[in-house]
Structures are given as structure tokens and as C-alpha cells.
Amino acid sequence: MTSKRRFRGLIVAGGTLAAAIVLAACGGSGGIENSSSGPANVQTAKYTPPPSGDLTISNWPLYIDKNTVSNFDKATGVNTTYIEDVNDNQEFFAKMQPLLAKGQSGGRSMFVVTDWMAKKMYDFGYLQKIDKAGIPNVTANLRDNLKHPSFDPNRDFSVPWQSGMTGLIVNSKLAPNVHSINDLFDPQYKGKVEMLTELRDTVPLVMKADGIDPNTATQQDWLDTIDKLKQAVASGQIRRFTGNDYTRDMANGDVSAIIGWSGDAVQLQADNPDIQFRMPTQGCILWSDNMVLPVGAPNTTAAEAFMNYVYDPHNQAPIASYNSYVTPVDGVREIFQKTNPDLVNDPLIFPTADYTKNCSTQPNLSGQEEQTVTRAFEGVLNS
Amino acid sequence: MRNQRIVALRRRLIPYFLLGPGILWLILFFVVPMYYMGRLSLDTGVFPSFQFNWQFSNYSDVLSAYDTQFIRAFEYSAAATVIGLLIAYPLAYAIAFRGGRWKNAMLLAVIAPFFTTYLIRTLAWETILSDNGFVVHTMQSLGLISGDGRVLATSGAVIAGLTYNFLPFMILPIYASLERLDRSLIEAAKDLYSSSRQAFLRVTLPLSMPGLVAGTLLTFIPATGDYINAQFLGGAQQSMIGNVIQSLYLKQTDYPAAAALSFTLMAAMLAIVFIYIRFAGSEALMGEEVEST
Amino acid sequence: MEAHAAALPRRRQSAGTRAWKWLKEHAVVIYGALAIAYMLIPIALIIAFSFNDPAGKFNFTWQGFTLSHWAHPFVISELTDALLLSLRLAALATLISTVLGTMIALALVRYDFFGRRASNYLIVIPTATPEVVLGASLLSMFLIYGLSLGFTTLLIAHVMFCISFVVIVVRSRLIGFDRSLEEAAQDLGADPITTFRKITLPLIWPGVIAGALLAFALSIDDFVVSNFTAGTTVTFPLYIFGAAQRGIPVQVYIIATMLFATTVLAMIFTVWQQRRADRLASVRPEQEV
């Protein structure tokens, strides 16, 4: 009886395996295996005014004031859906990639990603070029120092949403003497320090504190710095690595000094006046988050109309005063002189050249170097 | 005659009709994906283009890189299982033997908390265990932790979270087993043995073994692959293997490495399950005795 | 004098030992009560925080009591959309998995057939597999096939992990089932389908409902498998995961409290129904004369 059963069991197992192999043979085309990559033909979006219809935008959270979207809808007749589902460049890329590879955008007409991710997506052929006819305000009002970035010299496929600075956010009561990134490694702050999961923010900042220019660093420089971080984790110096959630730990008082983004400091300050942004002595990292048009984007006309709309200084002003990041639009300062005079000299929204004299832009990594460095860094995050 | 044969044939086929759709679903979406995961684990290449290449070195690469997280996952999970057992068994015993009229209410009180979303429960613990919160201050004044110590971002917090979140999986099978016990056996044992402690150790405990082992298994295995507790309650040094798998799949898009790691985890867990089934039979996994049909 | 001296210490002793004895006897119950209290702590916090009144953007600390958010629990459109999607997904997944699972349970309990043992394993093993492996394997398959992730892939995944739990619940209900009622019906001339409809189904109904309830709860609550198979679709737990990074709005706590209250009520209702069904048919064989 048992041997007969075992025999039958084997037949069932064998049959299932055979069926599975047959299923496997009809593998997918367009799947992750044996797919092609690279921009075959990068299209340019066509701007056909007037803007109308539905528009879906994906952006980072807490990046826009309450009224801009509805004001835009009223001014143009477009019906905008604004979703805040970009929490991390890599995670967003991983989610979107299967769609973008097939030329689809999942219904999104526009989304906002950081410089390096915009470049990465463009190199894969996942973005469309923007029709300049639809964005005259951008051409006119984009700040000079953002007009020709190295990753998109003619601003063909990206339009800055906001710029920002990565530096120190400090609780001045708990950590009054932290002024340099290297102060974060001071044992008196052990377990009260956090850093960002964003590779291109954390490692370059630590490199700068050791005198290395991130934009000319070698792969070995990257790996050595990552090693320094690994040791700081092992000793318990760094409590953890975070994305936007450092705000919780700062607000709770669980940490006293972190690497963070300039705009968040202002929002944290509203609840706790001791918290402030500090420009590290060796300088910060400058970056922009950019509006881009994905392949397969429906209604690119409305998307470009939105870009154009927020580049009118009158419309940009409430956005800038809400999120306290560096505004990429000229003319906002003049408006603030009448409406928000206390913000006119805010270095976080209008940083002077002197304020950012030691700052670097986010460095570029690609190919094998990117994979090696990313893997090493992720190994530290998941120690 | 022919009618009889048709009826007999129909009766023989009925179980397959009943079984078919569900089993087919499980085969297509549980068994077959395992094959694909195995296949992905043997790919080489750079994102986004991978090729199948019998790349067994993926496994050795990934296991040597992440052995710490693997071992840590087993350690945390084992600790959570043991502590969970110590909490769950007396609780199940209390409900089964001392519950009386309140049995159902107590069971409800035990299960209901787990009808809030898993994430919110864990985040609630993150708030409760915050450095400047009531719990930590009390522990500091009682001397349980040092004056500037913390609970969050330590192994303790992660283990506490795992224990809490998997408690119902431990309680319910043990309760079911205890509930099914023939009370007259326990009465007899109390008559025969000198103390109720002896009666418990020699009769109750052994008879509740199926439920106990089922609960242990249903806690240990899912807890090993968990990553939420480590993410919210732990720090940089508390990453479990689930965190790595999630990072590799959903952040780094390093699919072959991710699949290799996941496949290894699954193989390890399946091995434990099969050893268990060998000893106890498959019905016992549901906390029941083998029934007669 | 002797008696007086002997009486005094005995009275003192017995008070102390009496207390100790009471403690030992009720140790288990006290322990149980403490355990239940421990399990309810986070729930208390969640309910409390639904009344929080955060001043700034972040909702991390307690700042004040207010009922105003309870008046507007659905103001955040992304949250409401995610909730509706989760409810739709859970409803469909529950329907499909309950039907399939009940059928499997009937087959497993009542018939002996070739492949029964293997089916038993196949049912039980998914419950003992880490969720990360379930999600990762499904994602692997979808990636290789180049399928678009979304509601459909979510539904597939949810039904998959719900079936096993439905089978386990319905099965335990079926095992103690008294067949004599069915046999009586068939003696009276009812064909199998009518017997099933009029006798079997109503009697196992509480078990089926319990299984469905469990499936619903599992689906609404699922995070890990959904994280891997949702793509860009956002379910309620996935929304919370994203929101956790910048402060969960009070509305999330409110909705969580509402879900909790609803499920508790549903459970109470199910138990009440089960008691009724128990009285209609003898479920425990050992109670037969």
C-alpha cells in the first residue's frame, strides 16, 4: 500500500514538474529576460494648445501648497489628479520601470525625480523631450545657474521643480556644537545620529568633509568612504539610515543631529524652535528635483501647461513659501518683498553665492561603477 | 447497468471537481512562481536585461554577502518564538480551563487587536517605545536600561515587535489543542499524581503538544522572513534577511541576487516544514489530531 | 496564656499564606489578564491618536484632543482612494477564495481519493511560508512574463494566500459535522444538490462565514505580498507605508479604528450565529447519546 502510494506520489510530482516546464517554455517576451535597452528613438512631446482634459502628476510628498493645483485647474479648465507617491528615487524607478520599458507611464503625464534619476531614465529611453513651445515661462524665468546643468545641457527633458541643499539638521539644544559632517562621528553623539539612504547625498557629504571632491572622486574613494560609514554603524554611532522619516525621529527627540534636506528643517522648526538647518563647514550638496515627461504620457499639453504655470513667479511664490526649498524661478523674491518680507533674505529659499560657496552638485555614477558602489552602500544600510 | 456505472463514475469524480479550481489556483500562483524565482536566480546580466545562464555563483555570492542578516533573522525569530510561547501558553490555558462563560469574550479580546493593520500596530509600538516616552522613562528609573539607553533601534525592540505581531498564531493552535482535551483525563491525572503541577507536566502538556508545535512553526517561519518590524523598530544593525530581499527586489532591482536569496530562504523554511510533517503528519500542522473519515 | 501565645502568630501567618495561596491559584488567570492587557496597548494608542490634534504637518506626538477629524475622516483623497481599492480587492478576493476554499474543504473531509495527501500539503504549506517569499516568487514570475502589475496581480496574490486559511477554518467546522441529517434528507428523496442546498450549506454556513471573515481580514491587512505585486497601485496598507515616513495623518488612525470596530462587531455576530447553528444540529459527536 505505501509503496503504491509513493509511486503514485512520484507520478503526481513528475507530472507537475513536467507541466511547470511546459509553462516555462512559453516564457514572456517583453519580460525582464532578453529585453533590449537604450533609447531607440527619443520622441519629443507635441504641444497642442489649448490645454484641457485630465492630468495626472506624481510628486514627492509635502512639496506643494494647498491651492496651486485647484488654481491651475480653474485657470485652464484641466482636471488635475495630484498624487504624492514618489518616496525614493530608486523605489519609484523599480515600480515604474516595467511599465516604462513597454512605453507606458501608468496614466501619469508627468512626474518629479531628482537630477541623477532623470538622467538615468533618459538614458534608458523612458522620457520624452519637452516641446519648448509650451513652456515660455520656463525659458524666461529659469534661474541662470540652473539653465545648463551637466546632465541636461539644453534642458531638453527636465524642468526643475524645486532645488535643495543636503546638509545638517541639528537640535541646537541637544547638539549645539555640530557644525561639520565630521562632528557627526563624535562619540558624544553616539546613537543620536542619522544619515540618508540616498547614496548621492550621504557619501559625497562625508567625502567633502575629508577633503575629497565628489565630482572627481574615484571608485576607491567611494568605497573607502562607504567603509568609514560601515564602521560608524558597527560602533553604534549611526542609529539608522532614513528617507523622509528622519523627521519623526527629530520631532521625537530620538536623535540630535542628522544629515537632512533644507526644506524639512523649516517644517520641523514650526513644532520645535530648537531645530535648525546648518550649512556644513565643508559645504552642502546641491540638487534639484525635476519635472519630466515619461514615454506614453497622456496629455503632455496639459503637463507642459502645468510646468509653465508654476514658472510664473506669482504662482511660484506660494509654493516657495510653503516648502522652503530653493526656488528655481526668478522674480519670486520681488514678490516676497511685498507679501512675505521675512522670507526675502531666507538663505534656504534664496541662498547667496557666498552661502553655497563650498557646495557641490550631486555626482554622477553609471555603469559598473554605479552597481559596485550601490551594492556596497546598500550593504551598509542593511548591516 | 450503464446508469449505475455513470453514477459511480460521477461519484468518483466529484472530489476532483470540488478540488480542481482551488488546487489549480494554488499550483499556478504558488508552485509555478517558485520555478520562476529559481530561474531568475540563475540569470546573469545587468539591469534591465538579464539572461538565463545557470549562474549558480549567484548563490555563493549572495550567501557570503548576507550571511549575517540570515543568521540574525533566525536568531530574532527564535527569540520571538520562545517568548511568544511563554506568553501564549499560560494565556491559552487560562482561557481554555478557567474561561467559563467568558471564553469567547477572552478569545475575542485576544484576536481583535490583530484586526488593525499590521503596519499601524507596529508604528504604534514605535511611538510607545520612543526615547522620550513613558515606557522608556519607566524602564530607566527602574534600572532596566541605562540612564541614556534606548529601546528603539535595538534587537530587543525588533524581537518585541515580532513577538507581539505573531502572538495570535501561537495562541490559537495551542488554545484549540487545549480546548479539545478530554477533561476526564486530567481529572484522572489529578487523582493519580500528587500535585496538579505533576498532572500538568505529565498529562496536559504532552497532550497539547500538537497545538504547541503547530503554533511554534506558524510563528517561527513567517517571523524569519519579516522585515517590517526591523524597518520601523530597528536600526542600521538590526536588518533581517527580509529587509535585504526587499531592498534587492524593490530598490536595487538586482533581481538575480534577490531571487537567489529568496529561494534559499524558502528552501530552508520548507526543509523545516517537511521535517515537521514527517514527524507529526500533515493534519497536525492545523493543530488537530488525525481524524478518521 | 499558652493558647493566647499560640493563637497570635497563627492568625498573622494565615493572612499571609492565604494571600499567597490565592495568588498561586489565580496565577494563571492573572497572567492571562496581564497578557490580554499587553495585547491591547497599541490598540489603545491607535484609538487615542485618532483624537489627536496636531498643530504642524507632522502627527508624531500627542498635542491635544479634538473630535473635528472624526467629522471629516475622508478628506484626504489619496487615502480614501486607497481604502476603497483595498475594500474592493478584499471583497473580490474573499468571494473567490471562500468559494474555492469551501469546495476544497468539502472534498478533503468527505472523500478519500488519489492525491488527497498531496493536496493537504499544498494547502498547508503556503500558510507556513514567509510572506516575503510568496511576494518575491510572484514578482519573479510577473517580471519574466512582462506582466503589468496592478489590481489583477494583487487579486491573484490575495486569493492565493487566502484559500489555505479558508480551507483550514471550514475544514475544522466540517469535521464535527453530523452526517445523519444529510442521510435523513436523502432517505426522504432529496437529490445531492438539494441536500447540499437545504441541509449542508445552512449548517456549515457559520464556518464558511468565519472563513470568509478571516480571508477579508487577511486581504485588507496584507502589506508584504501587496508591496511586491502592486506595482504602482496603492492599497490602504501601502498608503500607510508611504505616509509613515512623513507623519501619518489623523484620518488613518480614524479609519483603522473604524475597521477594528467593524471587524469586532462582525466577529461577535458570527459567534452568535454559530451558537444558533449549534443549537440546530448536534456538532460535537461526543455529545451524542
Supply database-style keywords.
heterotrimer; A: 383 residues; alpha/beta; eleven-stranded mixed beta sheet; 13 helices; 11 strands; 16% strand; B: 293 residues; mainly alpha; two-stranded antiparallel sheet; 2 strands; 3% strand; flat; disordered C terminus
Class derived from helix and strand content of chain C: mainly alpha
Query: What oligomeric state is this?
Result: heterotrimer
Q: Note the main sheet of chain C.
A: none
Assess the beta-strand content of chain C as a share of residues.
under 5%
> Which consecutive residue ranges of chain C, at least 5 long each, have pLDDT under 50?
1-7
Beta-strand content bin of chain A: 15-25%
- Specify the biggest β-sheet of chain A: 11 strands, mixed
Structural class of chain A: alpha/beta
N-C termini distance of chain C: 64 Å
The sequence of SSEs of chain C as H and E is HHHHHHHHHHHH
Radius of gyration of chain C: 26 Å
Radius of gyration of chain A: 24 Å
Helix content of chain C: over 70%
Number of helices of chain C: 12
Unreliable spans of chain A are: none
Shape of chain C: globular
Number of strands of chain A: 11
- The total of beta strands of chain C comes to 0
**Per the principal axes of the C-alpha atoms, what is the gross shape of chain A?**
globular
Q: Portion of residues in helices of chain A?
A: 25-40%
